[in-house]
Specification:
single chain; 88 residues; alpha+beta
């Protein structure tokens, strides 16, 4: 992990096209501005953790309920037309 000390207005470049700007620093925290291409996903750390936990919970719940589902074959709703009759 790279640890940097930056001041308000300082810029950090990440890769080819991502710019991180320190907008302000105060007792409440640091405000950052991120300038990146639209195809770059930017997620806050707590959101990533929440999504991972929810996915794990959903998988556990699915496994718990899976044994309750009947093991049946789903039949198609297609109605076949009867064989054509020979007309004399």
């Amino acid at each position: 992990m790279l640890i940097l000390s930056r001041s308000e207005g300082d810029v950090i470049h990440i890769g080819d096209g991502v710019r991180l700007v320190v907008l302000s620093c105060d007792r409440k925290g640091v405000r950052l501005g991120i300038d990146a291409p639209r195809d770059v996903r930017i997620l806050r750390g707590e959101i990533v953790v929440d999504v991972e936990q929810e996915n794990k919970r959903a998988m556990t719940a699915q496994k718990e309920w899976l044994h309750l589902a009947p093991a049946t074959t789903i039949r198609s709703n297609v109605v076949e037309s009867p064989e054509p009759t020979k007309q004399d």
